[in-house]
Design goal:
The chain is an alpha/beta fold. About 40% of the residues lie in helices and about 10% in strands.
Length: about 190
């Protein structure tokens, strides 16, 4: 972003709770978020901060937690109770950060989540985007979205973040991930 010419910048700071499953301390996650928000502030970015889906996490029972933890985060040894305590603490800290910075805080509805308590169902994606973009744009609760063509949707789905670790493999992709004809860029960090 620092090399880019000054353009209106919009950012969604999301997936902030995933690092808890890698046993990152809450204060370290908050520090990372604050650093990202500081970098975005330099560019006068309009930002929405995505909170952890705390209501969805509270509905996860012991057996489902341990099954998902073993499958998705096998190195994590946090108990169900400790993970929920950390998620609640992070949620509270994110609310404080958002209030202090006058940044909209987005919290998903619990019925948007299914078996996976931290990633919403695909069918909820449109509503999530409408609400997040509505919070950023100041148009109110919900923004109107244009439905992209199937080809464009496929193109967007193929965009990759600067760095992503899955199953022990770290992948990197150059940013911005996309440059549109009108000058719009999309970067994913």
């Amino acid at each position: 972003m620092n090399r880019a010419r000054p353009l209106p910048t919009v950012a969604i700071v999301a997936d902030v709770g995933n690092d808890l499953a890698y046993e990152a301390p809450v204060e370290k996650v908050v520090e990372w978020i604050e650093r990202a928000l500081d970098r975005l502030a330099v560019h006068e970015a309009q930002v929405v901060l995505n909170n952890v889906p705390i209501e969805s996490l509270r509905r996860v029972g012991w057996a489902r937690y341990h099954t998902l933890r073993e499958v998705l985060f096998p190195s994590c040894k946090l108990s169900h109770q400790e993970m929920l305590r950390r998620a609640e603490s992070l949620s509270e800290r994110l609310a404080e950060v958002a209030a202090a910075r006058e940044t909209p805080l987005f919290s998903g509805e619990s019925d948007w989540y299914g078996l996976d308590p931290i990633h919403p169902r695909l069918k909820s994606a449109g509503e999530i985007w409408r609400r997040m973009l509505g919070a950023i744009s100041g148009v109110g609760e919900v923004a109107t979205l244009a439905r992209p063509s199937a080809r464009t949707t496929l193109h967007y789905r193929r965009l990759r973040p600067l760095e992503c670790a899955q199953f022990g493999l770290t992948r990197r992709a150059e940013q911005p991930a996309m440059r549109a004809v009108d000058g719009t860029t999309i970067s994913i960090y």
